[in-house]
Amino acid sequence: MSVVHAARRERLLARLKRPILLPAGAPQPRNYPANLQPFRASSHFLYLVGRPLPGAWLMLTDGAPTLYLERPPADDALWHGPPLDPAKLADDLGLPVAPLDALTPPPETLSLPAMDAATRAEQARRLGRAFTAGLLDARDLPLADAMIDLRLRHDEAAIAGLRAAAEATVAAHEAARAAIAPGVREHEVWAAMQFEFTRRGMGWAYPPIVTRRGEVLHERGLHRTLEAGDLVLIDVGAETADGWAGDVTRTWPVGQPMTPTQAELHRVVREAQAAAIAAVKPGARYREVHLTAARTLTAGLVDLGILRGDVDELVADDVHALFFPHGVGHLIGLDVHDMEDLGDRAGYGPGRTRSERFGLGYLRLDRVLEPGMAVTIEPGFYQVPAILNDPARDPGDRLDRATLAKFADVRGIRIEDDVLVTESGADVLTDALPRV
Amino acid sequence: MSVVHAARRERLLARLKRPILLPAGAPQPRNYPANLQPFRASSHFLYLVGRPLPGAWLMLTDGAPTLYLERPPADDALWHGPPLDPAKLADDLGLPVAPLDALTPPPETLSLPAMDAATRAEQARRLGRAFTAGLLDARDLPLADAMIDLRLRHDEAAIAGLRAAAEATVAAHEAARAAIAPGVREHEVWAAMQFEFTRRGMGWAYPPIVTRRGEVLHERGLHRTLEAGDLVLIDVGAETADGWAGDVTRTWPVGQPMTPTQAELHRVVREAQAAAIAAVKPGARYREVHLTAARTLTAGLVDLGILRGDVDELVADDVHALFFPHGVGHLIGLDVHDMEDLGDRAGYGPGRTRSERFGLGYLRLDRVLEPGMAVTIEPGFYQVPAILNDPARDPGDRLDRATLAKFADVRGIRIEDDVLVTESGADVLTDALPRV
Predict the structure, then answer these.
(1) Under 8 Å between Cβ of A426 and A281
(2) Is B92 left (phi over 0), alpha (psi -120 to 50) or beta?
(3) I want to staple A416 with a disulfide (CB 3.0 to 4.6 A). Which of A114, A378, B196, B436 is the partner?
(4) What is the pLDDT along chain A (436 residues), one digit of tens a residue?
(5) pLDDT by residue (tens digit) across B80-104?
(6) Cα B402 from Cα B382, distance rounded (Å)
(7) Residues whose CB falls within 8 Å of the CB of residue A157, separated by 6 or more in sequence, listed in order
């Protein structure tokens, strides 16, 4: 792997001839200082070094990288075994390793804010300026843009990482299907999925959603009991040991086939997903992929009699967003929302900003697609009381509430896959998992 | 449960007539701000409120409690469902609920440092003074001591929490036993254990140790493959949804019965544990429990010919600590090292400090035991090269290195259970799990 990461460092240095300091970050205390949350290294660090080394810093200066590591405390061998051998580590990683106290970044060094506050404080001390999680300093924008430029189009090793995450994610969803039954609690389903991750030495890429209340988009309670006739929405993805993410959603019936109303709306969401996936190709603008899903969904809802009117007009007026209020997807890579630590800069690019429209404002991505990009495609249909009962959003007689009432056994449906953009179109990394 | 927590708040108010502000804490970002680590509320907050409410603050003033909660953002219902109903929450918890912007702590309010930096910064802002994780401000010592006084002796609800954690912990270790086989990787064993926690709606109380390198006390790699003839050391404990911890270690042979040398040393550790458990009773000083384990272990090693000399002298000179370099246990409660966020104050009490001796310096607890306290009892035997090859620790001919060499197939053995101190002695909460 060292060759892969060395090549990435070379590509970064070729793009940006400025001193760069990137922290791995540090594990964060849970209930007392020695009881730590699982460590998740910064994705920028993982991209360039390949290994989650707590407390490490990558310095790139004068065209060369150095990895700085803290010296372990004197009694460390008792608790954590023989210390990392710097020479062996340097050999494994293909870059020089030095003790942290030798790190002296030159003035004007660029950096990106660490997610944990302790590392950010250290970063501020070392670079003599403040850092805020999720907020870029104007002087660091060239570094942010260089990282985005590298990470936006995945190299072969990155694609292999995404495929490994996809494989584990599919296996977990298969395990969920086998576990679903009336009387089973949501966290029992999640337990069966997590087992598939953990036994592979992987974890989750984001907190799991397994819920009979699919209309709550980020419902994470996991405490309800499934009942016959429910639809259970499962949005779960693996993260490989070196950080690559999967992100898949399926919506299954519990204890019986879908009712006719459930089956109709499930089909409409599947059609919206298929249309959006078909729209994924080099040169396509992602907002159009989103609008393709919105139009297909809207056409389906018109066919069912839930909406009335011209499809294009309904979408232009955000009437579809009453039922599909989020974006059709996002970048995926080392982060499940890839590079979201850089705000919208990765998803939108410089100069492009989010729409104020209800039907577009939650869209996390609006770039022109290129080969090597990976995105999710995840349309949905939800009955959210807070939206449907909001007088400000009432579409009048374009919504047939009497017909909608017949579909009361559908709370939320989402179908999501991970898609690699290739020269010839969409390569659905998670296509092995049935959708129905 | 509200009655339990109301009674605890009453007991705190009876002990300390000063304004008190205790934060629940906030979930911490993982790889980008919106992707959060699982939330773990402060144990002090959980003890007094009973529910992990992110961003909540408990204020106790003028003899009465109030819970302060942030107002959710406007679009919260879409992502997280209908907001908590403050009136229902107040009813469930048995205390008034108010919006966070109404929180105005009086001057001289006492508090305890939050573990997450964002909450600590908020705490500093609200109280006009700095807080440091794991470090007590002198003016907050009365609050720390009152919390210790409450939490040190577990009430009935606390004991029920510890029993629930113990039950899940035992089930996980049983699952591990069934999973162990040559060729199985450590994280596959952990997967089977985690499954038992997750399906109960529980998590882990501390990062798992499942290792064929038992001599590395905090070995957490989970990446090795078990081989026939190994001993695998498993130190794993559950945490209930409301925060109560389990903490159990077993050491099992892989693929075959223990070899005679493994069996001898495993028996010696079991005997040390049994002797220490027998020493647990009201009035016993925990350091004596530790030394009982040390003496029993030493006597066993003398019998095996590994050590030579008088048992009491060997222990007085810390020769036992060559093989048993850690303490025999610690408090257990809402934290697996209970109240370790208050430093040694819970384990040692005011005025008592850790020994400088190698054989006692790692002991986390040295109180006189009282009914209602819960502790772990976890002696071990390890061959740590960094200790055994340290010339400064060489005990000369009191260590028979030739005999020791015959036991080379033992890297590390630890046997650990959770023990409640009762009027009549030790109640081993995890006794249902076989030790051999």
Answers:
(1) yes
(2) alpha
(3) A378
(4) 579 999 999 999 999 999 999 999 999 999 999 999 999 999 999 999 999 999 999 999 988 999 999 888 777 777 788 877 888 999 999 999 999 999 999 999 999 999 999 999 999 999 999 999 889 999 999 999 999 999 999 999 999 999 999 999 999 999 999 999 999 999 999 999 999 999 999 999 999 999 999 999 888 889 999 999 999 999 999 999 999 999 999 999 999 999 999 999 999 999 999 999 999 999 999 999 999 999 999 999 999 999 999 999 999 999 999 999 999 999 999 999 999 999 999 999 878 899 999 888 889 999 999 999 999 999 999 999 999 999 999 999 999 999 999 999 999 999 999 999 999 999 999 999 999 9
(5) 888 778 889 999 999 999 999 999 9
(6) 17
(7) A1, A4
Residue A239 buriedness (CB in 10 A; 0-12 / 13-18 / 19+): buried
- Tell me the nearest-neighbour CA distance from B78 into chain A, angstroms: 6
Closest CB to A117: pick one of B30, B40, B118. Answer: B118
Q: How far apart are CA A371 and CA A425, in angstroms?
A: 8
Q: Which domains, from first to last, does chain A contain?
A: 2-152 (3.40.350.10), 156-428 (3.90.230.10)
The amino acid at residue B170 is V
Helix axes A2-15, A86-93, angle to 10 degrees: 70
Quick check: helix, strand or coil at residue B144? helix
DSSP percent split of chain A into helix, strand, coil, nearest 5: 40, 15, 45
Chain A residues within 8 A of B80 when measuring between CB atoms:
216, 218-219
Q: What stretch of H or E contains A414? A: strand A412-414
Give the chain B residue nearest A218 (alpha carbons).
B79
B160 CB-side CA count, 13 A: 7
A369 CA to centre of own chain:
17
Q: How far is B377 from B380, CA to CA, in rounded Å?
A: 10
The phi and psi torsions of B59 (rounded to 5 degrees) equal: -110, 130
Q: What is the CA radius of gyration of chain A?
A: 23
Rounded CA separation B380/B394 (Å): 20
Q: Tell me how far apart the alpha carbons of residues B276 and B251 are, in angstroms, rounded to a whole number.
A: 18
Q: What is the mean pLDDT of chain B?
A: 95
A32 interaction partners in chain B (CB closer than 8 Å):
115, 134, 335, 337, 339-341
What would you measure as the largest C-alpha separation in chain A, in angstroms? Answer: 74
Ranges of beta strands (E only) in A208-303 are: 209-211, 231-236, 238-239, 248-253
The predicted structure's pLDDT at residue B146? 97
Q: Which of A189, A207, A177 is nearest to A37 (CA)?
A: A207
Q: How many CB pairs under 8 A join A and B?
A: 172
C-beta of residue A95 within 8 angstroms of C-beta of residue A67: yes
Please give the residue of chain A at the shortest CA–CA distance from B37. Answer: A37
- CA B76 to CA B400: how far, in whole Å? 68
Query: Where does residue A302 rank: exposed (0-12), middle (13-18), buried (19+ CB within 10 A)?
Result: middle
- Global pTM reads 0.96
How far apart (Å, rounded) are the C-alpha atoms in residues B402 and B381? 17
pLDDT of B396 strictly over 70 = yes
Residues B375, B331: contact at Cβ < 8 Å?
Answer: yes
HEC secondary structure over B72-141: CCCCHHHHHCCCCCHHHHHHHHCCCEEEHHHCCCCCCCEECCCCCHHHHHHHHHHHCCCCECCECCHHHH
> Residue A429: its pLDDT value, please?
98
Cα nearest neighbour of A195 on chain B: B191
What are the structure tokens assigned to B117, written together?
């930096």
Cα B294 from chain centroid (whole Å)? 21
CA B39, chain centre distance (Å):
18
